[in-house]
Prior knowledge:
Elements: E1 3-8, E2 15-21, E3 25-31, E4 37-41, H1 48-59
Antiparallel strand pairs: 1-2, 2-3, 3-4
Amino acid sequence: MKLISTYWRDSDNATAKVHGNDEDGYTIHYYDSSGMFMDKESFPEKSLRFHEDAAENWALGIKPLPL
Length: 67
């Protein structure tokens, strides 16, 4: 899947990366400050903008990671 956008969390440089395309859908991959993969999530049938908003909200501390 193609990397579309990356969001950084200011407190520790952890990242959320949005991958995908219009045909296959989108997925957010979450990484800790050392670059280790933590989790991923996707929202089937939701737009790129929705996924980017979710990634940004996580980076800003508004949205927690799914459990």
